[in-house]
Amino acid sequence: MTTPDESVHARLDRLRRERGLLTPAELLDLAEYGVAVLDPFSVIVSRRVEIGPDNVLHPGVVIECDERSHCSIGPGNILYGGTRIAATDGGRVTVGARSLIGDGGTRILAGAHESITIGDEVRLTDGAEVLGDSLLGHGSQILGPVSARSVELAPGLPYTHPDPDGRGGVLKGVGRASGVLVGAGDVLFDSDYDLSEIEPRRQRLNHPEAPRLGPGPTLERLTAEHAGGVLAFERENRDFFRCSVPDRGDEYFTPDGFADRHRALLTEQAEGRCHFHVVLNSYGRIVGRVNLVDVADGSAELGYRVAEVDTGQGVARAAVEEVCRLAAASYGLSALTAVSSLDNEASRALLTRTGFTEEGERRVGGEKVMAYRRVLRAAVRRPDRRAPVPI
Prior knowledge:
By secondary structure, the chain is α/β, with parallel strands linked by helices.
């Protein structure tokens, strides 16, 4: 009850204390710890919130946390006006360091038994909403009025990094996204209502002229752990690949269909009938495949494919040259063969530049192709190499 001689400021302080909130004076006192509250009368912060140093809270920021919940804000973040962070009924919200949250409005809400973890240098803008059990890795972003429930955005470098292949996962557009996983260097973007129904794509497709930083790609022998990356690679480039080779069919791209095929490949490899490899860029993303199939009598057939966005960068040539070296040094092969469609000038030029010679035209599946062969220099056979090989 208001007393006659109670000032407006005293009434405000009392109302806030009754609700477990910091008073305007207490918010200003946070400056002693490097926290800048630009308008203590419009900012609402629970007493249970843990706030690190060097944060900036713009007017209208609300951070709520009840007695059953946990909420911590790391150092160096900027919370813009319209940001609301709430942990209630046993929920948990953890924000890392140096993030930009709420430019244009953002809600981060964790309810009963829900946990939201936001890494360092994350950016959430323009009406983004984070709900449920969500993990936003370092450098990830949600841009636009996207309601993200129980999502995982892979960690990476911040949006300011010039190479998009190394940045954290991004959700962008309008609508909702539930239960999605967006990998490093990927963006899930659409203006549709349900972003969960579309596939992520490479951020580089939106920044084709961006630099490629870090060391060159590496070659790894195919393992069970590569399954997820290979499926993402094949899905992302399906339309591009079927312009030059037969499509793999819808069943291949289903989780069960792909898992069966991947296990079959590993069985063939274990039996020595084939040698499969993936090409990874400097951030560990699969950008190509190079395979030796039908191993017999010291020979095998070469096949390769590179992601559309990574063509013209020397990836295919480096990978083919390295697999030729491995074929002799590690697999004991003395010759490799290959075929290319007559109109695929880029593939034919690559084979010629990597030491293959033409052996004449033939028909494969009713199509005329040019056959190639490369004789490998003799080498002492060594055990299969399992470690990544720089190329």
